[in-house]
Amino acid sequence: MTAPQTDPTRCGFIALVGAPNAGKSTLLNALVGTKVSIVTHKAQTTRAQVRGVVTTGNAQLVFVDTPGIFAPKRRLDRAMVASAWTGAGDADIVALIVDAHKGLNAEVESLLEGLDNIRQPKVLVINKVDKVKPETLLKLSKDLNERVRFETTFMISALKGSGVADFTNWCIANAPLGEWHFPEEHLTDLTLALTAAEVTREKLFMRIHDEIPYQATVETESFKVQPDGSYRIDQVIYVTRDTHKKIVLGAKGQTIKAIGAEARAEMMEMFETKVHLFMFVKVRAKWADDPERYREMGLDWTK
């Protein structure tokens, strides 16, 4: 379905930037109205830019969930942070997401400095407002607006959905005129194969995040539509050590079975068809130094 030609169409790219665990992925899912970005309580789970598409009336909004911006220590960290700032620089509007409970900490201070180099209109989105007192929110908003020229400020709870519509409506009103980039029914730019990998990675992190914080990645090696309309999905979980492989497998394979069952159930709900999921665990000691792995994750290789 295409946009009506009688009214001029609007299309705006809005980058969601913030510190790890500020709630960007939860906000993206709330904006789109369905799950397009993985959400865990583990910081830095979004590794590359994920775009969620909202089409309403004559406007299309493309929200870009960027990796959390933090002090990078490893090559993968540097690639994630570079991806986040690239997403901000390419957007029409930049939304800074701040955790109301954490407030103006060192990570947010660093973000404010980085925003000085961004020329696009910027808005402040204070998230998790249900966790703090109103007077604390007002002071935080005042302090942040004194540091950066924000067009406006939104107080939201992405988890509960409060304030999200106001943010969406403002973005619609301020999106530039232009042709849509995606079909009206499009919700994300992720392929089904990459979406499946992200679902499994979320379940992996949720179950073993303490033992293997970042030393694992998931790739969909094969994604086939069967004659009956079901999907056959073959995935590999790459870890860097044999000890990590044992953790992922678990005693008598119980851990990977549980991860697979949770991932398959969510995929079936998302894809609205039966899913046959086959998972394998392989050791690849240097996967975080392999340019091909970065391309698979949508990241640029960094020195």
What summary fits the major beta sheet?
6 strands, mixed
Give the number of helices: 9
Structural class label: alpha/beta
Our Rg estimate from Cα atoms comes to 20 Å
Contiguous runs where pLDDT drops below 50 for at least 5 residues: 1-5, 40-48, 68-82
Shape: globular
Strand content: 15-25%
Helix share, percent: 25-40%
Helix and strand pattern: EHEEHEHEHEHHEEHHEH
Description:
By secondary structure, the chain is of the alpha/beta class. Helix content is 36%, strand content 22%. It is built from 9 helices and 9 strands. The strands form 2 sheets. The chain has a 6-stranded mixed β-sheet, sandwiched between helices. Strands 7-8-9 form a 3-stranded mixed β-sheet. The longest helix is centred in the last third of the chain and has 18 residues. The protein is globular, with a radius of gyration of 20 Å. It starts with 9 loop residues before the first strand and ends in a 6-residue tail after the last helix. The N terminus is likely disordered.
Keywords, please?
303 residues; alpha/beta; 6-stranded mixed sheet; 3-stranded mixed sheet; 9 helices; 9 strands; globular; disordered N terminus
Short description:
The chain has 303 residues and is of the alpha/beta class.
Task: Record the SSE blueprint.
Layout: E1 10-18, H1 24-32, E2 50-56, E3 59-65, H2 75-90, E4 93-99, H3 106-115, E5 122-127, H4 134-147, E6 153-155, H5 164-174, H6 192-208, E7 216-225, E8 231-239, H7 242-249, H8 254-271, E9 275-283, H9 291-297
Parallel strand pairs: 1-3, 1-4, 4-5, 5-6, 8-9
Antiparallel strand pairs: 2-3, 7-8
Helix pairs in contact: 6-8
